[in-house]
Amino acid sequence: MRKTLIAVALLFISFASAQENITYQKPSAEIMKLADFERAPSVMMDSKRDWMIFSYRPTYKSLDDLNQDEMKLAGLRVNPVTNISSSITYANNLKTRRLKDKTEAQVKGLPTNPKIAYMSFSPDEKKLAFTNTTANAVELWILDLSSNTAKKISSQPLNANLGGPFTWMSDSEHLIVKQIPANRPELIDDKKSLPTGPTVSNSDGKVSQNRTYQDLLKNPQDEANFETLAKSELVKISIDGKEEKFKSAEIYSSMNFSPDGNYLMLTTIQKPYSYIVPLNRFPMTTVVYDQAGNMVKTVNETPLNEIMPKGFSSVRTGKRNVSWRDDQASTLVFAEALDGGDQAKEVEFRDEIFLWEAPFSSAPKSFFKTKQRYNDIEWSNGNIAIVSDSWYDTRNTKSYLINLTDGTSKTIDDRNYQDVYSDPGNFADTKNKFGRNVIDVKNNTVKLVGAGFTKDGQFPFIDELNIQSLGKKRIYTSKLKNSKESIIDILDDKTVLVVEQSASQYPNYYVRNLKNGKATAVTNFENPFESIKNVYKEVITYKRKDGVVLSGTLYLPANYDRKNHKEKLPLLIWAYPTEYKDKATAGQSTQNPYDFTFPSYGSFIYWVTKGYAVLDDASFPIIGEGTTEPNDTFVTQLVANGKAAIDAVDKLGYIDRNKVAVGGHSYGAFMTANLLTHSNDYACGIARSGAYNRTLTPFGFQSEQRNYWDVPEIYNTMSPFMQAHKMKTPMLLIHGEADNNPGTFTLQTERYFQALKNLGAPVRMVLLPKEAHGYAARENVLHTLWEQDQFLEKCLKK
Predict the structure, then answer these.
(1) Alpha carbon of 12 to those of 1, 6, 267, 282, 414: distances in Å?
(2) DSSP H or E run through 367
(3) Which residues contact 318 (CB under 8 A, 6 or more apart)?
(4) Around Cβ 232, how many Cβ atoms within 10 Å?
(5) Confidence tier at 103 by pLDDT (50, 70, 90)
(6) CA nearest to 674, candidates 628, 641, 626
(7) Which of 129, 193, 669, 756 could lock onto 687 through a cystine, CB 3.0 to 4.6 A?
């Protein structure tokens, strides 16, 4: 033991100083070759699958992108100069192509150095609207697909602080746009403005269960600035740029036209604001207007929602999910809780769905009652609708086929929604006369497109369901060898649009003929990761000591001798725990050996080029059957998952089990810290952007519904911070300096590091400037890879 401690101490002499004055570094050549790549374009298609829009964006953001002005208010992070989310990702080029053509065409007329976002087809799909962000404003642009030419149509800055700043009108000639108000006040500078009094909050004694949110309002100055940034005037603008005022300035959170385009539903945020919940729980008023902007009816008023019953299946009272019915001209659909929103109450029905026809002069009509919490409703071009509900505690979901002619219903799906092997797939849809996507019903049949996960592998499929008899017929199963096919859309009775890929073949679009099986290539994106095309890849399955089936994707270096395997490799395990309610679903796998191998900073795959074995996405299920909650035995199951993974790869003869590292991001970092604390199976670990003290998230975290005062022993036992005196294994802690994820405040890593350092643990902490929960800047991503590379070389190789 003494020799081991001396070795660890010597190993971390370079980490022992309080701080290091270090500049940004780049990883080794093998990793750099993979990390420094050109990203393939994203593809957007119209509903007829006629037009393909290719949007190009840089592989990474720059530090300068992250260094722009930012304000954090009510759960928002926005740039107060440009008035758009500070975390938005922009495209910097657009190209178009018809599906039947062989080449793509550069869009003409784009602005210089464009920053493109919020792309949206017009209802007739002949045009594409998008925003362009300049140094100080958001502009509205229109791309005419027939001429492949783009032009700016807005004269005043748009307000995209609350998301998409425009919506198309049904004529495809006009849009309703959020603009910065003409008389907008200046923002208050906290450093220069003296407060007029203290900040005071009250509790009325009601019990609630609110998560630990970031970026909340803190004082009256924040309230004023939030209002300034969030308010917009609504303007009607033609594609030729003619503007006319539509509505005065308010905080418009959503804009939705009825299917026939005759009504516009606007939801506005009202006072009082809150200092303990984000803006989506502020008071809101929903009003329906006609095309001219005249008020028709206030259809919903939601009060401030600071008080919520405990449990993930609990909801607020009043109208929820207010939306337009897709298969009728102007009918609203919404749900209301029948249990007061409290899942603890025992009732026959949880929710009731209502329909409300314009002009809303009569009362809403009951449509359907759900035994579980209402999820969604899908309409069709026939006489059916599909309603779905779910219940978190049992992980159950049900789907009901509603006959719209006589109101009868049939249950067509009743299963554990984590049971991927029984997933029936998604209904194939079509656009109706209103331009809305609805279930495509033909000759009393509908089609379902499924991912096709089974115990024997993945086989995507198309099923035909008879809506009268509920009989199913499988009309297509993908059985490609050594590659994977994902069904994107059914083009007609003979052809489907698919994406095909393999471990070394970059994903590309194809049109497959279902009759003869032939596939015609549509795109030809090149593989940017040629240097790892020959690495060995295999999905391995193995069992935990209690019999639960686990899996992971194993990577071995190219040219590694798997038959003799005289060289024992160090092993890197990357994972993320997931909660389940039964062992059967926990043991199901969605990993496919023919998925394209896409290395990213979110895994250890890079290191297969440096002589490591990598087990990526290793199964780490946490199971709580019956009345037992998963976290009741979190640590025990966590350690068992890790040991099973190491045993499985060791049994294959590939690794030196004394040289195993484990890593993860967010909840995976929390996992890593716990494994290093409670297990001796690891030589080191890498924990990124995690939470380590669960008393700082006292009203639940991840999938834990109970609060700290319900089960203090669970919170304390699961907190690596509380067990810091036990942690003596080398660990690298990395965290974004501006983490915005609920519960994973940067303070979590800082306090955990201080505890470990003072208790004598060999630990290194790296805080990445300007980064949120996910890392985006090129400099920070490359430095993260360098840190990990140096750490692993010291801990495992040397």
Answers:
(1) 17, 10, 57, 50, 55
(2) strand 365-370
(3) 300, 302, 303, 336
(4) 27
(5) confident
(6) 641
(7) 669
Q: Tell me the per-residue pLDDT of 419-444, one tens digit each, with 9 for 90 and over.
A: 999 999 999 999 999 999 999 999 99
Measured at the CA of 609, the angle between CA 606 and CA 613, to 5 degrees, comes to 80
| 26, 192, 268, 285, 380 from 288: Cα distances, Å | 55, 41, 11, 10, 24
pLDDT at 797: 83
Q: How confident is the model at residue 7 (pLDDT cuts 50, 70, 90)?
A: very low
- For residue 658, the one-letter residue type is N
* Predicted confidence (pLDDT) per residue in 560-584, tens digit: 999 988 899 999 999 999 999 999 9
CA distance 100 to 435: 23
Do the Cβ atoms of 499 and 508 come closer than 8 Å?
A: yes
Percent of all residues in the chain with a pLDDT value above 90, rounded to a whole number = 93
689 to 601, 709, 721, 762: CA distances (angstroms): 13, 26, 14, 18
Q: Residue 101's CB: how many other CB atoms inside 10 A?
A: 11
Picking from 175, 215, 203, the residue whose alpha carbon sits closest to that of residue 86 is 215
Fill in the amino acid letter for 151.
K
* Residue 595 pLDDT > 60: yes
Rounded distance between C-alpha atoms, residue 230 and residue 250, angstroms: 8
CA distance 345 to 418: 25
DSSP state of 38: P
Strands 569-575 and 149-152: unpaired
Distance, CA of 650 to CA of 668 (rounded, Å) = 22
pLDDT score, position 10: 43
Query: In this structure, what token pair is assigned to residue 693?
Result: 């003290």
CB proximity list for 694: less than 8 A, separation 6 or greater: 701, 708, 715, 716, 718, 719
Alpha carbon distance 730, 663 (integer Å): 12
Segment 768-791 shows an average pLDDT of 97
Give the residue numbers annotated as catalytic, written as ranges: 666, 739, 773
Q: Provide CB contacts within 8 A for 17, sequence distance 6+.
A: none
Question: Using CA atoms, how far apart are residues 97 and 793, in angstroms rounded to an integer?
Answer: 47
Q: 3-state class of 152 per DSSP?
A: strand
| Distance, CA of 269 to CA of 76 (rounded, Å) | 14
* pLDDT the model gives residue 3: 39
Q: Which residues, in sequence order, are bridge partners of residue 391?
A: 396
Strands 437-439 and 429-431: antiparallel
pLDDT digits (tens, 9 = 90+) for 368-377: 999 999 999 9
Exposure string of 145-158, with b = 16+ CB inside 10 Å and e = fewer, is beebebbebbebbb
Give mean pLDDT, residues 311-318. Answer: 96
Tell me the percentage of the chain whose pLDDT exceeds 70. 98
* Other CB atoms within 10 Å distance of the CB of residue 10: 9
Q: Exposed/middle/buried for 403, CB within 10 Å: 0-12, 13-18, 19+? A: middle
* Cα 476 to Cα 461: distance, rounded to the nearest angstrom: 5
Average pLDDT of the residues in 679-697: 97
Q: Which residues of 68-96 are buried (b: 16+ CB within 10 A; e: fewer)?
A: eebbbbbbbbbbbebbbbbbbebbeebbb
pLDDT score, position 20 = 78
Segment 500-520, tens digit of pLDDT: 999 999 999 999 999 999 999
